[in-house]
Amino acid sequence: MNPRKGLVLIVEDDRNIAALQQLYLERDGYRTEVAGDGPAGFDAVRRLAPGAVVLDVGLPGMDGITFCRRLRERGDWTPVLLVTARGEEADRILGLELGADDYLTKPFSPGELVARVNAVLRRAAGPARGTPAVHTRGPLRVDPGRRTVQVDGVPVEFTALELDLLSHLLQHRGQVFTRLQLLDQVWGDSAHRDPRVVDVFVSQIRAKLGSASPIRTVRGVGYSATDDGE
Ligand code: CA
Description:
The chain is 41% helix and 22% strand. The protein is of the alpha/beta class. The structure holds calcium ion.
């Protein structure tokens, strides 16, 4: 076992699913802890400070959506991978809006679970190598290396994925990306993903940045970051 892979907290009331998730993640070198309901899981995040949380949506005591929202409200940006059942699409979108980093749909393969956990952790750790460029545009300043976003010098809280998406668009200013291209290039893969997830993240970024947002919708195609302050 590779002890450097860190602790993953699994919040799941179905014991069989929790046991499978433990098996898959531990086989990949993670340590795991399981909480069987919302409040216990919420408490465990504070107590254990896990590297990531694998969070079921349908939980006794506090559902996964509320869990996520309350976690972000208290300023806790631990990466969250939301686990939803097929047909819980509205929950999935809402969960992402409320600060989940990514989602996984039941039933999932061991490979999918491990790949998604690896990805949220990698993203939270920041760029793998080199010092990425700082992007400035009008009042907006995005520093992908330090993982900070500022508008007029005031810090704005961004999830790791929001920051990666914004940085990617700014890095290729003027270039138009389709949703599938963004999923491949920012999320790391477009398999099993709903392209509308990109729209959710774009609207989150716009809501956070207001008029400082550089993202332009290119109707029928996708998104790009504009070159100037227009
Ligand atoms: Ca459940």
